[in-house]
Write a structure and sequence with these properties.
Arc Repressor Mutant, subunit A, 9 helices, Tetracycline Repressor, domain 2, homodimer, DNA-binding, mainly alpha
Chain lengths: 198, 198
DNA sequence: TATTAGTAAATGCACGTTCATTTACTAATG
DNA sequence: CATTAGTAAATGAACGTGCATTTACTAATA
């Protein structure tokens, strides 16, 4: 026997939480703020997720899923592997609109890093992205976009630190747009391995 | 004229605050925690810094000073410019001992980024480091360690994102030590510009 | 003794959480 | 078909806690 149907889906609540984090930062992520965003009351969120921490765990779990689908989509595109790589980097930041938004999301990520269970999820996201990047780099080698002697594993690490560094420095100096900065840094890292046109 | 002398200096309190941030993260940075660390009582800190935010501002101001002196020291060393650059990067992280510690400090930095006044300080630190890096890069060109045609301004940006990225990815995957990771990333960025031995 | 540093207790606020109650729906039953 | 029982979702008003801040007081110097 079904009871009263849910007014808002879990996914809507989690999206709202992401929104709140971007606007208010981790300290502003209160159950009241999230509940307000979706037209519920704080206690309801506790009942549905068990606790505030339960909501955070659900949020982290969703991030892992998202990272996976992002990977899928990037591979399905019919662009060149390197173009797909740049797109992947930019789209993985779809929640970020301003430097402050990025700073808030980053602060939240850091908060996760101090909690064992949440760190597991954050690491999973990071590794999923790493695998996606390396797959695209390999494809780029196969497609002749990168030199044959490219160490794709090492280059993957460089690309990831470039992406992370671009975001953080952008949050600090606030120059230009994030997509610009990401593309710049990625291209700089890739440059030595780009295959010259024959 | 002067009344009762202060039992603990401001600098000691600020150092304690840094310590607490590293251990507990921004959320754990309470006046009680800091006061406890130095053997005072929360109310005293409010009286001395005006408010909790006052303490944060003082902390940010001290970071700006520190960044400057770090620059000075790096230039005074009798090492090669590139060696000094690597040392500068490592020593600018002297408060960081574990990935978690770094994550906590980073989260605190991000917190600052959402406050206009604190962001000013954080930006000043970032720019001071940028100037130090560029000075060392220029010196490296003069000393023949880097190629003459090196675009030191552009390379400065790359080095800064490499440093930032190395820290963040290290906090995520927790592989190796931070100094190792920093040196690795910096060397990768510098590699294309290193002058071959004659 | 005048002045400043420090304390201890009190205040007020924001937050997560709990719980009795109400609402909205489904599934039996006559 | 109309009615009733059953159930899950949501509410709103508590409650307790942890925190920054205030206030009245004490301690230590010059």
């Amino acid at each position: 026997m079904a009871g009263r149907p849910r007014g808002v889906d879990d996914s809507v609540i989690l999206r709202a939480a992401v929104e709140v984090i971007g606007r208010m930062g981790p300290a502003g992520l209160t159950l009241a703020a999230v509940a307000d965003e979706v037209g519920l009351v704080p206690g309801t969120l506790v009942q549905r997720f068990g606790s505030k921490r339960g909501l955070l765990v659900a949020l982290a779990a969703r991030s892992v899923q998202d990272a996976g689908t992002l990977h899928e989509r990037a591979r399905e595109r019919h662009e060149s592997p390197l173009a797909a790589l740049r797109t992947l980097a930019v789209e993985s930041m779809s929640d970020v609109s301003t430097p402050r938004t990025y700073a808030n999301h980053l602060a939240f990520l850091c908060m996760d890093l101090t909690d064992p269970e949440l760190h597991e999820h954050a690491l999973a996201v990071h590794q999923a992205r790493g695998r996606a990047i390396e797959a695209l780099l390999r494809a780029a080698v196969s497609a002749g976009e990168l030199r044959d002697d490219t160490d794709t594993a090492a280059l993957t690490g460089s690309v990831q630190t470039a992406i992370a560094g671009a975001g953080l420095t952008w949050a600090l100096d606030r120059r230009g747009t994030l997509p610009e900065r990401l593309r710049e840094e990625i291209d700089t890292v890739l440059a030595p391995h780009i295959r010259r046109r024959t």
